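Minimal example, chain plus BES.
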Amino acid sequence: LAQDQSYRLPTHARPSRYEITLQPDLNAADFSGHVDVDLEITGSPRRLVLNAVELEIDAVHLSAAGTGEDLVPQIRLDEAEQQLILDFDQELRGPARLSIDFRGVLNDKLRGFYRSTFRRQDGSEGTIATTQFEATDARRAFPCWDEPDFKAVFAVTLIVEEGLAAFSNSQLESSVTRDDGTVEMRFADTMVMSTYLVAFVVGPFYVSEPVVVDGIPVRVAALTGNFDLYRFALQVAEHSLRFLAGYFEIPYPAGKLDHLAIPDFAAGAMENLGAVTYRENLLLADPDAAPQIELQRIATVIAHETAHMWFGDLVTMKWWNGIWLNEAFATFMEVTTTDAYQPSWEMWKGFSTAKSGALGIDGLRATRPVEYPVGRPEEAEGMFDVLTYQKGGAVLKMLEQYLGADVFRRGISHYLTTHAYGNTETSDLWDALEAISGEPVRTIMSTWIDQGGYPVVRASLSEDARTVTLEQDRFLYDGTTGHDDRWAIPVTLRASVGGQVVSERLLVAEPSARHSFEAPVDWVVVNESAWGFYRVAYSPSMWSLLLGAGLASVLDGQERLAVLGDTWAAVTAGTVPLSQWSEAAVAVEAGDDPEAWTSLALSLKALERAGDDADRDALAAFARRLAEPVWDRLGWLPTPGESDLVAVTRARVLRVLADSGRDEALAADARDRLSAHLSNGGLPPDLIGACAAISVATGGAEAFETVLKAYLSAPLQQDKLRFLIALGDTPDPSLAGQALDLAVSPQVRSGDAWYLIGGVLANHSTQVSGWEWLTANWPRVAERLPQSLLVRCIEPVATFTDAGQAALVRSWVRARPEAELPVTPVRLAQILERMDVTVAMAGRLRGQIAAALG
Ligand code: BES
Ligand code: ZN
């Protein structure tokens, strides 16, 4: 495929060291800067091309090391290519130093060098300056070779107002007050690193005392002086750093590690070397007052970003097609690290839920391979999706299980050691793993990474119950299969043979495979612990054996989720009757397992959207049948010493019962308890979000007002978000309209608006009016939200069940040029195909659900 590569920089000049001085003016929301770049020039070009966008270039000159000549080029800024083009009237050679004076604006777009605001204790508004450069926005802060394989050393100086804190990637070396009262803060040279990992943060931050891990000071910094909110993050950060250095067998590569809470943030967190930035709610929490689920999330986010210090920062992909290497591996490590921190959280089971999201997208015709060509910078943005993170993470876990955890770990360590300070492609990872394991890693993994989709393994049992036959086909939600696609599938069978439980491992690379047991089996589970990234379709006889033995006693937690997920997917695709899912839903006995409840809740919601009134009555009865016994046992109050996961389960069961189960007495109780809590406290932290959501869903305008007030007055981002999300649960279109207007008002941070917009659009009762609002207000939404989050406002159309509504969505999307709808074509096609799948499923099930639930 011949491609226009004009957005790529020529390689005849390579930077080795940047000296950057920046002076941000927080009040005027702008900055001025100077950069000196040491270059090594090869060949004899007359032109230098580097990246810059939305910067004013005041002066440029180049001093050639050999001759000492000072050359002044002609300057051109190419806005479309985001390039600064320097034309000299003579040929350039050898080492040289390029110097540029420039100015820019601290923007409100949450990218590049941007402005974020916060409330001081006295209620007044303060401003900070901060950065977000990944994927290609360093060029918005200083002219640079903004591609990941132009690694260089960065020496940063920040000139700030007296009294402010400033952070960059390395240790502060000196801090000098200048004649005009400003303070010049000089940071140590970094290791060689990519531009997208550079960070500058300036503001009145509070900073924790450091925790020292193997000589590395680890700190947390934020705009609140309430240090109770730092404790948990510090503890997790300390564990993550220690654990990961041990796992990789490589010391942490920088001199210090700060974790910084930033009030306005587009992504969740960002792995800037030594200066990791986070949304406030993903870093700060009082462990005595925060829900378990939020603490777990914070722990995984910190572990994820810390893992990037090696995987991404020390060893970096050559180009953005390799972003999966970064993110899949950080995802794998976030779970591994958090699992080591707190085994009772059963993080891998939690990851199964995340993985099912990837199976959901990867079962579409419009899916893409995990590794996928990326051309222009905008295309990199579309790569941060469930295929990169969750499918990528899941197939790495599958490989780890296949190779053995220690062999895998040693392979990773070998890869990182070999390529430290360098750039890699995917094949480098396979080489390292093959060298250590002696297994054909590349051949196996390319079927999962280089082609889209995944198989469904059809399992059947011979008459004599001794031989299992496995056949692979591509799984597709449109109910068809792709017979030509093949995967190298690591399959583990667990079977009961004459009362003895045995495991058998095989690699299924052919269209079909067989395994014979020594004696007839009592039952067989295919895909032990569901480590494989595929679905299983059991033959009727194998399914009966499992049901007969009791799903609840035979299956482990991950297998139980896989059975629920695979059955639900088959129902969605129309290949098995709904009764098979409801049978499984009862038989797995979700009990105290929060992930099983998540799975059930999602399916129940989808059925409610698909069904008619009679269906919904039957669904409510079914939900009560599932949830009532568990709720009766768990009740409102935590029992002393109960496990953390029970607290999570309690919240989920409460929601299923009050919402899907339409238990009105329970809903009224939840509303009362929330009101009481808002004036006097008292609710266990885990139940606040659930009670807020139930209140808004059932309590009309009064409850909406209550939760809105709670949102507006909550001091912490973490608390605010819970209430904000709950507002999307109103069934009343006019209140939903109020919520949507709120979303784009100054009362909601631009990085948070999508929670509310997405919530209203995913809510069956408000999705029609919500869609009308979104299309009528699109220019306003697109203007206000960070571009990378717009897709999250569109995504909920995948839950639309009405064919007419779907047609409206499609024609609106078609009428939008890409400039107005900055979502990559692949991502958009996936959303629309999911919508079609939902519409088709609803068409099949509507009116049939009551009967199927029995
Ligand atoms: N590198 C990403 C941040 C990022 C995402 C930058 C998209 C640019 C575009 C970071 O490591 C990350 O993966 N953050 C996640 C949170 C994480 C814990 C899964 C995010 O932002 O959602
Ligand atoms: Zn990441």
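The chain has a mean pLDDT of 97. The pocket of BES (ligand 1) is lined by residues 134-135, 267-271, 301, 304-305, 308, 327, 330, 384 (CB under 6 Å).
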